[in-house]
Amino acid sequence: MKNQEKKILSDLETAGEEKILEAIKLAGEVGKDSLIPVIISLALTHKSSEVVNASLDLLRSVKSKAMIPALKEAIDNANKVSDKQKLVMLCWEGTLNWDAHLGYFINLAINEPFEVALEAITVIEEMQGNINLEEAKQGIIDTEKAIAQQPDKSSLLASLAVTLKSFVSSAHLN
User: Fold this and answer.
1) Is the pTM higher than 0.90?
2) Which of left, alpha, beta for 77 (phi over 0: left; psi -120 to 50: alpha)?
3) Taking the CA of residue 10 as centre, how many other CA atoms within 13 Å lie in the half-sphere pointing to its CB?
4) 127 neighbors 98 (Cβ within 8 angstroms)
5) Mean pLDDT in the chain?
6) 3-state secondary structure at position 113
7) Whose CA is closest to 117, among 66, 58, 158?
């Protein structure tokens, strides 16, 4: 780890609000993948809304593919529904392509509370077309089973099923 990266990391973890905001800005300019988990943590845990918003803004702009496993890990480890919702929202608000993770988001839509499911479905709806057809077909089956078992999310899951069916029918047209 280079000195600049160490300083940024130190400021992100221990400094006062102004220093943290400066470090977030510098982290965006430096673009070190190793800083992503720390920025995610700040977005979820810091007391200052200004630090949280700056962290979220930076995370939305990350173009490095290292963001994908870091964000998935944070989603999987988040204990609060509001944190999971915020992290999944970053997936569709950001600049990364999540097409290769269709099954992951189907799973979130089916197994997580409504707020998280809504964001996961938005990620799926934003997918651009490099979709795994088998995952989409299995997703239709799983989603249709879940509709009957989860009346509180039935309309949301029904919309997911429609989206997945459109992926499958579009693939057959190409």
Assistant:
1) yes
2) alpha
3) 7
4) yes
5) 93
6) coil
7) 158
CA 140, CA 120: separation in Å to the nearest integer?
A: 15
Q: Could you give the angle at the alpha carbon of 147 between the alpha carbons of 143 and 148, nearest 5°?
A: 130
Residue 69: which of 36, 26, 114, 105 has the closest Cα? 36
Judged by phi (left if over 0) then psi (alpha if -120 to 50, else beta), residue 132 lies in beta
Q: What is the largest CA-CA distance in the chain?
A: 56
Tell whether the model's pLDDT for residue 171 goes beyond 90.
no
Residue keyed to tokens 């999310």: 153
Q: Closest by alpha carbon to 75, among 44, 118, 29, 38?
A: 44
- What does the pLDDT look like over 64-111, one tens digit per residue? 999 999 999 999 999 999 999 999 999 999 989 999 999 999 999 999
Owner of token pair 């280079």: 2
- State the pLDDT at residue 112: 98
